[in-house]
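can u do me a favor
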C-alpha cells in the first residue's frame, strides 16, 4: 500500500455511475426539446434488441441514517405512499406517451430511501402500473433494496410474485458504537432473518452492503462485521467507502467530527483486511467496491467479459437507455475514493 497515493486520493467526489457526473452536466446548452429528441432516437435504436433499464427512487425513510448520501425524506406518515406512487406512474405515462412504442424492460430496480417503507400492496400497485404499459425481455432482472429491520416475508413474497429475484440488504456495520453514530441500530438477528427469508421465498441473489471508514469504526469492527457476514454468505457484497460531506449532507453528518473518522491510512487498511477475509471464503473483487461468489451472475458476467456499468451500478445486462422515475427527488450521491 502506497501511503502517498492514499493521501493523494483521500478525497470525495460525485458517485461515478454517470459520466460526466451530475454536478458537471451542462444544463445551459441543453433544452427540453433536444433531450426528448435524443431520448426518442436512442430508444428507437436500442429498445427492440437490448430493452431498457428502469430505476425507481422511493425516497421515504422512518429515521435518518447519517452515513447516507442520497436524497430522502424522513417521515413516519405512511399516507405519503399512495400519492407518491400516483406521481411516479404519471411520470411513467409521460415517458410512454413520448416513446409511443411499448418499452421492453431488461432491468428494473427499486432504490431509495427505503423501498420497504412502502406496504407490499402499494409496491404491487407500482410494479403492475409499470408493467401495464411495457413488455419484458426474456432475460429480465428485477431487484430492490431492503431494510433488514422492516422487510417482511410479505414484502419478499409480493415482490417475488411480481418477478423480483435479487435483493440487497443494508448492513453497514455490526458494532453498537458505530451503529449509534450512524443512527442505524440493527441486530445481526434481523439481517439473518431477512436473508434466510429471502432465500426461503426463492431469491437467487441476496446481497449485503457494508461500509468502511465510518465514524468510530476500528479495524476490529470491520473484522467482526465480515466474520458475521461470512456466517450468512450473501451472494454478492457492496463493500464501499463512507463519504464525509457535512457541507452537503449536514443534517446528520455534522453530528460527528473529522477526527472521529479513521485516518486515510487506517481506512485503507480496513478495506484491504476486509478484502482478504472475504477472499478466504471465495469472494472475488469486482471493480472498485463489489464482491461476489462464483455462483453469482455478477461474477459470471465478469469472467465472461460481459460486465457493464450504468447508473444503477455494476450489471450483467447491456442496456444503453435508462429511465429514472422519481428522479426529481434524487441528487447525485457522493463517494469517497480512498
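np, heres the sequence
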Amino acid at each position: 500500500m502506497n501511503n502517498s497515493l492514499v493521501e493523494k486520493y483521500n478525497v470525495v467526489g460525485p458517485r461515478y455511475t454517470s459520466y460526466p457526473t451530475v454536478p458537471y452536466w451542462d444544463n445551459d446548452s441543453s433544452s427540453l426539446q433536444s433531450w426528448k429528441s435524443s431520448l426518442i432516437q436512442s430508444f428507437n435504436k436500442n429498445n427492440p434488441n437490448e430493452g431498457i433499464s428502469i430505476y425507481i427512487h422511493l425516497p421515504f425513510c422512518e429515521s435518518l441514517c447519517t452515513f447516507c448520501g442520497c436524497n430522502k425524506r424522513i417521515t413516519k406518515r405512511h399516507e405519503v405512499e399512495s400519492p407518491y406512487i400516483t406521481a411516479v406512474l404519471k411520470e411513467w405515462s409521460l415517458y410512454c406517451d413520448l416513446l409511443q412504442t411499448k418499452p421492453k424492460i431488461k432491468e428494473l430496480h427499486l432504490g431509495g430511501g427505503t423501498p420497504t417503507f412502502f406496504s407490499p400492496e402499494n409496491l404491487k400497485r407500482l410494479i403492475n402500473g409499470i408493467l401495464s404499459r411495457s413488455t419484458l425481455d426474456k432475460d429480465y432482472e428485477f431487484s430492490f433494496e431492503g431494510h433488514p429491520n422492516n422487510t417482511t416475508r410479505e414484502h419478499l413474497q409480493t415482490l417475488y410474485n411480481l418477478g423480483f429475484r435479487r435483493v440487497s440488504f443494508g448492513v453497514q456495520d455490526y458494532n453498537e458504537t458505530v451503529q449509534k453514530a450512524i443512527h442505524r441500530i440493527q441486530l445481526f438477528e434481523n439481517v439473518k432473518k431477512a436473508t434466510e427469508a429471502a432465500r426461503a421465498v426463492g431469491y437467487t441473489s441476496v446481497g449485503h452492503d457494508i461500509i468502511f471508514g465510518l465514524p468510530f469504526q476500528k479495524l476490529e469492527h470491520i473484522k467482526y462485521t465480515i466474520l458475521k457476514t461470512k456466517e450468512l454468505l450473501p451472494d454478492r457484497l457492496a463493500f464501499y467507502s463512507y463519504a464525509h460531506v457535512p457541507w452537503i449532507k449536514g443534517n446528520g453528518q455534522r453530528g460527528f467530527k473529522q477526527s472521529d473518522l479513521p485516518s486515510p491510512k487506517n481506512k485503507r487498511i480496513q478495506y484491504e483486511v476486509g478484502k482478504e477475509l472475504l477472499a478466504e471464503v471465495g469472494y472475488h473483487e469486482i471493480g472498485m467496491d463489489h464482491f461476489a461468489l462464483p455462483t453469482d451472475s455478477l461474477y459470471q458476467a465478469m469472467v465472461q467479459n460481459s460486465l457493464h456499468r450504468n447508473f444503477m451500478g455494476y450489471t450483467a445486462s447491456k442496456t444503453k437507455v435508462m429511465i429514472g422515475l422519481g428522479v426529481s427527488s434524487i441528487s447525485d450521491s457522493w463517494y469517497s475514493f480512498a
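The radius of gyration is 20 Å. hope that helps!!
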